[in-house]
Amino acid sequence: MENGKPDSDQTAIWLNKVSRWFGATCAADRVSFDVRPAEVFGFIGPNGAGKTTSMRILATLDMPTEGEAWIDGFSVIDDPDRVRRRLGFMPDGFGTYSDVNCEEYLDFFARAYGLRGNARLTALREVMGFTQLDQMANKPVNGLSKGMKQRLCLGRALIHDPNVLILDEPAAGLDPRARIELRDMIRELASRGKSILVSSHILTELAEICDRVAIIEHGSLLAVGTVDEILSGKAKIGHDVDASDSSSPAISASVEVMVNVISRIEAANHWLEQQPGVESIRFNGKTIRFNFSANEEDHSDLLKRMIQNKIRVASFSSKQRSLEDAFLHVTKGRVQ
To answer: What's the rounded Cα separation, in Å, for the pair 335 and 46?
Structure first.
């Protein structure tokens, strides 16, 4: 970074302590994170958390109250025109025009971006082929299904071949097949070198496609890291997360263990209470569940000791924390 400007070879998107106030409401509170070249970065948070506000600022559709934001090395505040030429924005809802078919719709935006002649025709052909809209070129936009409309909106964001994509809830309302196909398209775009910031409530989808994720709630960024880092307890966490700050406390790395016992349930429960790393014991009938902060060898040793203490175990299994578990652990259910 030189003179406060990020290096576009290493940082495609950068927010630095961005805040946005609407009267007495703080929609974004000192939000800081970066997205690297060819990275898929997930933006997680409940409705009203500040995701769309942050994305609109990056897309030059809103101005921050304070802070800085950069796209591909250009300031969204000082160089919005250069930013727009390098950015493709897919909002959570978009307008259409009556009596316009798919090809005409994309052609309009190709012309709006200044594409002419063979460059325009090539862009249309490539985008319609990539989004699989080529067989629906003459179909009216208003007659498209939800999944096809999302493909059309993605095509609109891609028509000028931007380096950076911002996708706001692209999978909302899609059926399982459409979500899988959208996921594959996002990964393909990243493999072509595009940097992608994507928000979603469907956390299982993000866990499969994202290189890193950020969790935001009530306008404040709570945690940033890879999915593995969040699941293993190594993610940076805390208000005003900064990529250079490594002193933040971590999310608990415990996993849930489920044990079915044949007899001596009360004795098993009492014994587990005395074991290091065992927390939140609960049981239902002959099934005991608890959280266990340990590695695989410790799991094996725990099972061995249970048997040695004459606790008859019918089954012993553990469940790795999911991204949903981490999200629920970090957030508090606050709304704006």
So the answer is: 8
Q: Could you tell me which residues come within 8 angstroms of residue 59 by beta carbon, excluding any fewer than 6 positions away? A: 76, 87, 89, 166
Q: How far is Cα 244 from Cα 6, in angstroms, rounded to an integer?
A: 14
Please name the CATH architecture into which domain 255-320 falls: 2-Layer Sandwich (3.30)
Classify domain 13-237 by CATH architecture: 3-Layer(aba) Sandwich (3.40)
| 306 φ/ψ angles, rounded to the nearest 5 degrees | -60, -45
Residue with tokens 């862009």: 123
pTM: 0.78
Burial class from Cβ neighbours inside 10 Å (0-12, 13-18, 19+) for residue 304 reads exposed
**Model confidence band, residue 240 (pLDDT cutoffs 50, 70, 90):** very low
Distance CA 183, CA 91 (A): 17
Q: Which residue has the tokens 């997360």?
A: 241
